[in-house]
Amino acid sequence: MEVGNTTLDTLASQLKSEMKILANDAGQLAAQANPAAGNGQQLPAGFSFTQSMKDALDSVNRQDAAAGQKMNDVDSGKSDDLVGAMLASQEASLSFSMLMQVRNKVMGAMDELIKLPV
Fold first, then answer.
1. Which of 5, 9, 40, 48 has the greatest CB tally within 10 Å of its CB?
2. Cα distance between residue 34 and residue 29, in whole Å
3. pLDDT tens across 21-45, in order?
4. What are the distances in angstroms from CA 12 to CA 79, 114, 117?
């Protein structure tokens, strides 16, 4: 089966748009990890996507642990801040969802790269 130039051009344009989205997501992660780095539109000189993902994962893990601690405090009667515990739990859940969306975008881009003919 022969693949036409228009199909290759379409695939290339889709790949470019996915890479732009990934670069934007990576920039946003870098801006969250280092707020002084700028507005997230341009990556800093020493940017490492791997390190940014590790930092984001650590941040989500810390938020989940803090939310769990607040829930345990409410359950054991040490605290009566149920609203604060629920907000912390929701915040941790949203952070995890964002991290999974970034992961899914990266995996989708990698799948598209693997499918490209050499």
1. 40
2. 9
3. 777 777 776 666 555 544 545 666 7
4. 56, 13, 11
